[in-house]
Amino acid sequence: MARSIKKGAFVDEHLRRKIEELNKKFDKKVVKTWSRRSTVFPEMVGHTLAVHNGKKFIPVYVTENMVGHKLGEFAATRTFKGHGTKGDRAAAAAAAGAGAPAPAPAKA
Fold first, then answer.
1. How far is residue 79's CA from residue 69's CA, in Å, rounded to a whole number?
2. Helices (H), 1-108
3. Around Cβ 43, how many Cβ atoms within 10 Å?
4. What's the CA gap between 78 and 104, in Å, rounded?
5. For the whole model, what pTM was predicted?
6. Which residues pair with 60 in a beta bridge?
7. 3-class DSSP state for residue 87?
8. Residues 29-47: pLDDT tens digits?
């Protein structure tokens, strides 16, 4: 369920203060944050935020298209390792091919 419009977007106070300080100084330092729940607001555009994914900090350059989304959306927490290797496929094909006829080769 979405957050009430009356309440406005949620941003951790410490992160908001850091961004405001950088904007006052016209500085473009990388800001480390663990606040994946914070919403990207327009003042963040142009800054690079290092968002923690549970293991390391992922640098995220904020653009206008990101406004309104959560920081956690841009730092994936899970790594896809694949569905299998060539060895796994060869073993499965050999096991399946023991009793079934081989498929016809595809024509180009």
1. 21
2. 13-25, 86-97
3. 15
4. 39
5. 0.71
6. 49
7. helix
8. 999 999 999 999 999 999 9
